[in-house]
Amino acid sequence: MILELKGIYKEYQQGKMKVPVLKDVNFSMEEGEYVAIMGPSGSGKTTLMNIIGCLDKQTEGTFFLDGVDIKACSENEMSDIRLNKIGFVFQSFHLLPKQSALANVEMPLNYARVPKKERRERALKALDRVGLADRVDFKPNQLSGGQMQRVAIARAIVNNPKLLLADEPTGALDSKSGAQVMELFQRLNDEGVSVLMITHDADIAAHAKRVVRSKMVSFRKRGDLHGQSKENPRRSACGGNRRKRNYSGIDAAEEKQPENSGGYSCERITAGILYTFHHA
Q1: Which residues contact residue 261 at a Cβ distance below 8 angstroms, ignoring those fewer than 6 apart?
Q2: 224-237 pLDDT tens trace
């Protein structure tokens, strides 16, 4: 098991008010899986990814990454986990503009204090894995969007992480470049890399072997779902379709993509409720 989250809650303090973002989230992922979390923008997916990526800690609940209890880790220990066990791919690439593709890919190895010769060899190998062996000396402004994202992926995998986290990895790309990036993710997964991707695009999510889809449900006020109808637990006791909404949640379902099928078979999982605060 590469990931195991149980009863995850996350709240942020805004002035005197506590804003719930995640509530009772349960999610697990086996090593070597390729999973997509799909849902609308602003639904809490990135908050969940920040917790999984050890960029933030949950308010309550347990989270184990590769057998390590993350909540018990210090900031330095979390930094070491990010460096050695997780590779990040973002929508906006986050490349150093004045550095070559090679130097950008070497950056995590610098932090890991890898010797210069080994650093160069590993960075060259990573660039070759993403099909950019002939672009090692190019700077970001000399590369296309798809090529920049492949440099970012090479940087993410150069430390041989246990988990590759991708947050809207094709959001800034045209359809052709996006398809190439998805082909690369598939190849990496075939090589044994665990891939967790978040996206709002159903076509992109369809590349994963397992899809967790989030559906919006609305509540008039913050609550713990007491008073919901037993016949229809997704209906709020406050009156499901009221137009005035202060909070919105996500009712998560898991979809398994059948082989040789253009659709999905959907089954429910206990992924809990994710809350996102909206101003009235």
Answers
A1: none
A2: 433 343 444 443 33
